[in-house]
Amino acid sequence: MATRLRITEIFHSIQGESTRAGWPCTFLRLTGCNLRCSWCDSEYTFKGGTWMEVDEIMARVEAEPARLVEITGGEPLLQPSVAVLARRLLARGYEVLCETSGERDISILPEGVARIMDLKAPSSGESERTDWANLERLRPGDEIKIVVADRADFDWALEQLQRHDLLARAPLSMSPAWGRSADGLADWILATGLPIRLNLQLHKILWGEVPGR
């Protein structure tokens, strides 16, 4: 079994999203993505990167103080060895998150990993790529995220919420696409009366779109 992964960057920062927002976290950003979302903020991960053995990656993680680790991308599930890495992290007692587009089968990741599945709204241009069977693969500890660029995206999100009973499956957060108004999204969420978390991407508020932060 391969034990290498192509890595764009490893860094220690503040978790900006999900129910762990605000916590110190070590990020493992893997290289490569098969989607091209219109509002993507990590196009620099599409190519390049450095091949690293899992042992090398673990050494880098263990050099940082955080006990929370997020595997992200790009699309991390494109690399089969991500499951090997996740198991090693769990075995060393780390809390492990993995952010994925939802286009790949999330069951590749072992029990104990909190999978944050990003459902792509229409403005992304990639909405049709979602593997809806992943909703049946969700387990306790997983989360659902939707990036919203406009009211049409929000209405689409509400439609999916009702059609697939999303709130019964996992905590749901919505983020404004970077550069779009957050107060508009906040008002829309409040008007629903539903337990939807507003996700403001704290890392970008603090440092902007700076790689490694």
Oligomer: single chain
Largest sheet: 9 strands, mixed
Q: Give the strand line-up of the largest sheet.
A: 3-1-2-4-5-6-7-8-9
Measured as a percent range, the helix fraction is 25-40%
The number of helical elements comes to: 7
- Quote the beta fraction: 15-25%
Textual characterization of the structure:
The chain is α/β, with parallel strands linked by helices. The protein is built from seven helices and nine strands. It has a nine-stranded mixed sheet with strand order 3-1-2-4-5-6-7-8-9. The model has no long low-confidence stretch (mean pLDDT 93).
Brief account:
The chain is built from seven helices and nine strands. With 213 residues, it is an alpha/beta fold.
Keywords:
alpha/beta, 24% strand, globular, 213 residues, nine-stranded mixed sheet
Write the layout of secondary structure elements.
Elements: E1 4-14, E2 24-30, E3 50-53, H1 54-62, E4 68-72, H2 82-91, E5 95-100, E6 114-119, H3 134-137, E7 143-148, H4 151-164, H5 166-169, E8 172-176, H6 182-192, E9 197-198, H7 202-207
Parallel strand pairs: 2-4, 4-5, 5-6, 6-7, 7-8, 8-9
Antiparallel strand pairs: 1-2, 1-3
